[in-house]
Design a protein that fits this description.
single chain; alpha/beta; Rossmann fold; 8 strands; about 20% strand; binds flavin mononucleotide
Length: about 200
């Protein structure tokens, strides 16, 4: 039997989405699920400019195999002009071969994001990331209202997925409610992955 793991794939320029990625990981690991946290390189208007294949610091870049073999996918990007950031889109646009072979079909997926401002487009970005997953035939996992912090958060955290609002505390640091929403969403992903793979 192959190893089961949740792939947490994110891009983050200033740390907020990275903090959400680690909060999701804490939740999934708490239930005993293996987690791989991966990122993607920056893109440049000059397409001949590339990063080294291994980043100088931080998380490893995601490989096609990381994505192909995952049992669940949490996809995170900052909101940029109401959409996902170009480096994430660039990576996702390279996965046409996985789409053509239905490689990600039936795999649970969720999304997370961060914005500068409260109404800066969180839900649109989350739906953007989830739309990618729908095209691949994945099973969408949200952050339901049974997560009590969803009902009282004053900043980020939506039923469409965990999030952070940077202007709330002028920092990429998550509020306690934002952390708990991401943590519990990581736990929910782990529970669903474990249920789906119980007999395989
Ligand atoms: C080019 C660019 C576009 C942005 N567009 C938006 C936006 O549409 N709405 C918003 O609220 N914040 C916007 N922001 C702010 C980021 O979403 C915010 O700083 C986010 O927390 C960054 O996440 P990170 O720390 O993981 O990089 C934008 C930032 C940049 C650099």
């Amino acid at each position: 039997m192959t190893e089961k793991y949740l792939l947490i794939l994110f891009y983050s320029a200033s740390g907020a989405v990275k903090n959400l990625a680690h909060a999701l990981a804490d939740g999934a690991e708490e239930l005993g699920l293996d987690v791989k946290i991966r990122t993607v390189p920056k893109v440049s208007p000059n397409t001949e400019l590339t990063d080294p294949s291994v980043p100088k610091e931080g998380e490893t870049y995601c490989s096609k195999e990381d994505l192909l073999n995952c049992s669940g996918l949490a996809l995170g990007s900052p909101t940029r002009f109401g959409s996902m950031a170009a480096p994430m889109k660039h990576f996702l646009d390279s996965t046409g071969d996985l789409w053509a072979t239905h490689a990600l079909e039936d795999i649970p997926g969720c999304a997370f994001t961060s914005t500068g401002s409260m109404h800066g487009g969180q839900e649109v970005t989350l739906m953007n990331l989830l739309t990618y997953q729908l095209h691949h035939g994945m099973v969408i996992v949200g952050s339901p209202y049974s997560i009590e912090e969803i009902n009282k958060t004053q900043s980020g955290g939506t039923p469409y997925g965990p999030s952070h609002v940077e202007s709330f505390n002028s920092s990429p640091t998550l509020t306690p409610d934002e952390y708990k929403i991401a943590h519990k969403t990581g736990m929910r992903m782990a529970k669903i992955i474990q249920k789906l793979n119980a007999k395989s």
